[in-house]
Design goal:
It is built from seven helices and no strands. The protein has a domain of 116 residues. It is mainly α. 63% of the residues lie in helices and 0% in strands.
Length: 175
Amino acid sequence: MWREGMMELLDQLEAENPEDTALAPKDLSEWACIYIKYIQILRKLETAYDQMVHPQKRLDMRKALEACIGRQLEIRHWMVKLNRGLDFVSLDDILVDLKLSPDVLEVPVPKYFIEDRAKELDDRDKFLEALVEKYNVKAPQHSPIIRIGAPLPEEEAIMIIQKNERGEGTGQLGK
């Protein structure tokens, strides 16, 4: 999977910078196809990284993964520029042409983003609990900070959604 992802990454770089400049991507639809391909490569590299055990190889894989993320963000920025500065770029037609589903556009968050900060997040939680105990403050039942990847009980999730729908805590008037 790692080798396959790296080969696709090299092919993608060659497609972006061909020897014949007439073949280089110019319009929004061509850049959108490249953007979608980078997301697919990113998924493949993230899966390979997550399954790799060898520490030295993981370092190299992480560099390639982060470079792919950076390139994907650069292309997204160029697409916004090509779209006359509008933040929203519609890729619906391109997805239909490529016969892909909309879930292809969901950019994966590498698990190491969360895993690397797990100790820091746990330390912060312990610190907050100690402050709550020290100052005898009632701990909030529904904290506005939700840790990514941590499952919520169904009742708590429903309460948060209802609270957001009513505009509570956002400075908006309730409906």
